[in-house]
C-alpha cells in the first residue's frame, strides 16, 4: 500500500493541519531573519559597529542556550505551555532592548529575547509522524528545509519596512509581533495540543553522547560562524557604499538564492546521504569567495544570491545525518542542539566581524570569514567521513524515518 502513496509536496500540503503548522512555524520563526538586522539598525543609532555586532551575538547566544532547553521541556511535557512561556520572555526581551537602557542592560535584554525564542523547528519536526504516512514524511521535511528560506527573505524586508514606518525600534516590534502571532497560531493547532513526548530512558547528556553527532555539531558551529559573519559584513559593505538600506536587500538576496537552491534540491532527487556532506560544505565555502570582490551594489546582490544556493542542500543532508546518528528517543533535542550549534557559530561570527570591520575599515576583510570557517568545516567533515567504518551503524542509529524522528522504541503516532 505504501508504494501507492503520493509523495509530492502539493499532496503533503493538502493533508489536514500540515500547511497550518508549517506556515505557523514559519511566521513564528521570522525573527530569525528579522531580528539580527533589526538589532543592528537599532543599535547603530547610538553604538559602534562592534557593540552592534555584540548585541546580535547576545541575541543568537541566548537562542543557543534556550533552544535545547526548551525542546527538552517540550519533549518531556507538552508543547503549548512551553511555547507560551518562551514567547512571553522573548517579547519582554525585545521590549527592554527598545527601551534603550544602559548598554549592559540592553545586551542582557537581547540575551533574554533570544533565550525565549520558541523552538519551532524541533516542535514541528516531531509532529510529522502524527500527520502523514511514512513515505510522505521525508517530503515534509525537505519542504520545510526549502521554505524556511522565506524567513530570510521576508525578515530583512519586513525590518526595513517597519523601520521606515515606525523608526529604529520598529524592526524590533515587528519581529516580536510575528513571533507572538506564529506562537498563537501554532500552539492552538489540534495536533500540537494533542502531542505528547515519548517515554524513554533519559541520559544527562541526551543526544550529545553520540560521537558522530558531536562532529556534525562542531561543523555546524563553523558553518554558522560563516553565515553569521556575512550579516555584519553586509552592513559594513552597505555603509561603505553610502546606503545602509542596502544591507537588508543584500541579506534578502542571499535568502532568495538559498530558497532557489532549496527548491531545486527538492525537485532534483539528488541523494541525501550523510556521505555527501563534505561536498556540500565545500560548495558553500566556494560560493562565498566571490563576495571578496565587493563590487558595486547591483552586482553584489547577484553574488549574494549565488552564495546562498548551497545552504539548503547542506542543511538537508546535515539533518538527515543527525537523524541517523542521534540515540533513540532524542531526535527532537538533537535537532535543537543543531540549531544551538548554528546559533553559537553565528554569534561568534557576528561578534568577530564587527571588531574586524572597525579595525580594518574594509568590508572585504569581513567577507573573508565565511569561506575560511566553512572551509575548515569541510576539512573536519571530510576527515570524519574518511574515518567512518564501512560496517553498518549500530541498530540504535539505524532508521528509515525522516529527520527528526526515531523508529527505535518509538510507538506509532509519535
From TrEMBL:
Stated name of the protein:
MFS transporter
Q: Does the keyword Transcription apply?
A: no
Does the keyword Iron-sulfur belong to this entry?
A: no
Q: Name one Pfam family in it.
A: MFS_1
Q: Where are the transmembrane segments?
A: 21-43, 49-70, 82-101, 107-128, 149-166, 172-192, 213-234, 246-265, 277-293, 299-322, 334-357, 363-384
Domain of life assignment: Bacteria
Ranges for the region named Disordered are 392-414
Q: Where is the composition biased (Polar residues)?
A: 405-414
List the keywords (alphabetical).
Membrane, Transmembrane, Transmembrane helix
Amino acid at each position: 500500500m505504501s508504494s501507492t502513496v503520493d509523495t509530492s509536496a502539493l499532496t503533503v500540503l493538502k493533508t489536514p493541519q500540515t500547511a497550518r503548522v508549517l506556515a505557523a512555524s514559519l511566521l513564528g520563526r521570522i525573527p530569525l531573519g528579522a531580528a539580527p538586522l533589526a538589532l543592528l539598525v537599532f543599535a547603530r543609532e547610538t553604538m559602534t559597529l562592534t557593540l552592534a555586532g555584540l548585541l546580535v551575538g547576545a541575541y543568537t547566544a541566548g537562542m543557543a542556550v534556550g533552544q535545547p532547553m526548551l525542546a527538552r521541556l517540550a519533549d518531556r511535557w507538552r508543547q503549548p505551555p512551553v511555547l507560551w512561556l518562551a514567547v512571553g520572555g522573548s517579547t519582554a526581551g525585545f521590549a527592554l532592548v527598545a527601551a534603550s537602557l544602559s548598554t549592559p542592560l540592553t545586551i542582557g535584554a537581547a540575551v533574554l529575547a533570544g533565550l525565549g525564542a520558541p523552538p519551532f523547528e524541533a516542535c514541528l519536526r516531531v509532529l510529522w509522524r502524527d500527520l502523514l504516512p511514512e513515505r510522505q514524511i521525508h517530503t515534509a521535511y525537505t519542504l520545510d528545509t526549502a521554505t524556511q528560506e522565506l524567513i530570510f527573505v521576508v525578515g530583512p524586508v519586513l525590518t526595513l519596512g517597519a523601520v521606515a514606518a515606525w523608526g529604529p525600534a520598529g524592526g524590533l516590534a515587528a519581529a516580536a509581533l510575528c513571533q507572538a502571532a506564529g506562537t498563537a497560531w501554532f500552539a492552538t493547532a489540534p495536533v500540537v495540543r494533542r502531542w505528547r513526548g515519548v517515554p524513554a530512558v533519559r541520559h544527562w547528556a541526551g543526544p550529545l553522547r553520540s560521537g558522530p553527532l558531536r562532529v556534525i555539531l562542531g561543523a555546524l558551529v563553523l558553518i554558522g560562524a560563516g553565515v553569521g559573519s556575512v550579516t555584519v559584513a553586509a552592513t559594513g559593505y552597505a555603509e561603505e557604499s553610502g546606503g545602509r538600506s542596502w544591507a537588508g536587500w543584500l541579506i534578502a538576496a542571499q535568502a532568495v538564492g538559498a530558497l532557489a537552491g532549496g527548491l531545486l534540491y527538492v525537485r532534483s532527487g539528488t541523494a541525501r546521504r550523510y556521505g555527501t556532506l563534505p561536498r556540500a560544505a565545500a560548495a558553500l565555502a566556494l560560493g562565498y569567495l566571490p563576495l571578496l570582490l565587493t563590487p558595486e551594489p547591483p552586482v553584489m546582490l547577484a553574488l549574494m544570491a549565488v552564495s546562498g544556493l548551497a545552504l539548503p542542500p547542506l542543511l538537508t543532508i546535515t539533518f538527515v545525518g543527525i537523524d541517523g546518528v542521534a540515540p533513540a528517543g532524542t531526535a527532537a533535542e538533537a535537532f535543537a542542539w543543531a540549531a544551538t550549534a548554528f546559533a553559537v557559530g553565528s554569534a561568534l561570527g557576528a561578534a568577530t566581524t564587527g571588531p574586524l570591520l572597525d579595525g580594518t575599515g574594509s568590508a572585504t576583510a569581513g567577507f573573508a570569514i565565511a569561506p575560511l570557517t566553512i572551509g575548515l568545516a569541510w576539512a573536519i567533515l571530510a576527515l570524519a567521513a574518511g574515518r567512518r567504518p564501512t560496517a553498518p551503524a549500530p541498530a540504535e542509529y539505524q532508521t528509515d524515518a525522516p529527520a527528526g524522528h526515531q523508529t527505535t522504541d518509538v510507538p506509532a503516532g509519535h
